[in-house]
Design goal:
Blueprint: H1 4-9, H2 23-31, H3 39-46, E1 50-51, E2 56-57, H4 58-61, E3 64-70, E4 73-78, H5 88-101, E5 106-111, H6 121-127
Parallel strand pairs: 4-5
Antiparallel strand pairs: 1-2, 3-4
């Protein structure tokens, strides 16, 4: 039998861990800061962050241009649908809050307007345009 403590704490992490440790337990370890986040974790959180005006998540909308993750420090480069988005500040707070709940220790978000946001064909279809 594989020792989860050996795998987890001696640097031998691999996919076999899922046979031993349940997702809620892994999530708890991440929340406690024992495990670090990765880009896929950040993307899953971003999929839960909706633009309040369009009621679609920021990942699907294509508002996220870049994600860097170093341990539990997350850096995001993103845009808004318009430079004067009235929900911009609240979206930033929501993203930071949800990422910290998921285990990020620090979240830095850089807002850029180059390149200009253009909805993808999937987003246009979802919006009915």
């Amino acid at each position: 039998m594989l020792s989860w403590a050996k795998i987890l704490f001696n640097g031998g992490w691999d996919t076999r861990i899922s046979q031993i440790i349940s997702y809620p337990f892994l999530h708890h370890l991440k929340m406690g800061g024992i495990l670090s986040m990765n880009k896929e974790d950040v993307i899953e959180v971003l999929k839960q962050c909706n633009d309040p005006e369009l009621d679609m998540n920021v990942w699907f909308l294509g508002l996220i241009y870049n994600i860097e993750v170093n341990d539990a420090i997350v850096k995001i480069k993103m845009t808004f649908t318009t430079p004067f988005c009235p929900y911009g500040p609240s979206m930033l707070e929501m993203i930071k809050s949800k990422l910290k709940e998921a285990g990020a220790k620090n979240v830095e978000i850089e807002i850029v307007f180059e390149p200009k946001w253009e909805p993808s064909e999937d987003v246009k279809m979802a919006l009915g345009i």
